[in-house]
């Protein structure tokens, strides 16, 4: 039985991501200011953390940075011959092996009940593949290890201009564009919509959300003249779903270009409040770039990739490894900071409502992880 939320302190694992990318840098920057209401354990190579810190410090003496000496670290280092192959800015089998090992370690500890949430640094899918781990992304590894087949990729971003929150779930994720139309089915959309509704209720307290669902084709097919999926099954599926869920407002299929006008207005604001633009509580995009181009245009520095359907919290910044600027000290850490803050908030929300398997297994605020540091 879960009790006093005041005694609950979430345990967060933060994986460094690909050590050749900007993951470690944005983590050290994001943790420069205290992160209240949780205990953070970094999962990755301690020596890589220390070297990254020293290099950033010598190049930018006044940069706000967390000092690894003051951080709790679950050291996860490769064999020395592999570790030596890692070169900043260059993805490789070795850097892929490292980031894979960090995430595997964090997942194993989360499943054993030691962590309530995992915040992941960005990895390179190509480096994972080179290391012999051909997963489409971290989400799929997390879901596989957690033993769930009902999961989703939700991007959450709070506007610094208006305070409005954009939530975008991707119905399909890392598949070729050529395969998207075949992958989309009524059954898939029902699964994703129901998952989204569970998440909005449990994690965001939205009991009767309004959801906007994108069309697939230009102008949502223009009555079958520009593509037939809307007429063939998407409109019938929405009509059936409205009958199944009569208490909800389900808009769509909205032409995919105009779908983003209201959220754009609510995000950037004007003399009117965000609510005046009447944005939806969440958006269901049918494929990766349909959802992520608008999310990144609006909120590249704010958006958080959130895996829903897992038995523990998982968040990540929306950006990738940025090998082109790795080691320069110029990476922005705002999305990583938002990922850390959202993970803490989601852990508390799940603990409060009892919607977590992991927090049931943990005694309040005490992780059983062998760590170095404080
Ligand atoms: N969560 C994750 O693990 C993600 C991983 N990726 C992976 O990252 C790799 C590189 O992907 P790209 O498409 O190049 O995207 P990217 O996000 O790494 O870089 C795109 C552009 O944005 C810049 N950028 C990215 N993050 C930044 C930051 N924090 N501050 C300042 N500038 C930043 C980069 O310098 C680059 O010009 C790929 O292997 C991809 O799979 C991509 C997105 C998310
Ligand atoms: N485009 C989002 C992305 O690449 C994140 O993938 P994942 O590694 O979090 O599954």
TrEMBL record:
User: For binding substrate, which residues are annotated in this chain's numbering?
Assistant: 139, 296, 305, 314
State where the protein is found: Cytoplasm
Keyword terms: Cytoplasm, Metal-binding, NAD, NADP, Oxidoreductase, Pyridoxine biosynthesis
User: What more does the record tell us?
Assistant: The active site is located at the dimer interface.
Q: How does it assemble?
A: Homodimer.
The record describes the protein's role as:
Catalyzes the NAD(P)-dependent oxidation of 4-(phosphooxy)-L-threonine (HTP) into 2-amino-3-oxo-4-(phosphooxy)butyric acid which spontaneously decarboxylates to form 3-amino-2-oxopropyl phosphate (AHAP).
| Family to which this protein belongs | Belongs to the PdxA family. PdxA2 subfamily.
Q: What is this protein called?
A: 4-hydroxythreonine-4-phosphate dehydrogenase
Which species expresses this protein natively? Stenomitos frigidus AS-A4
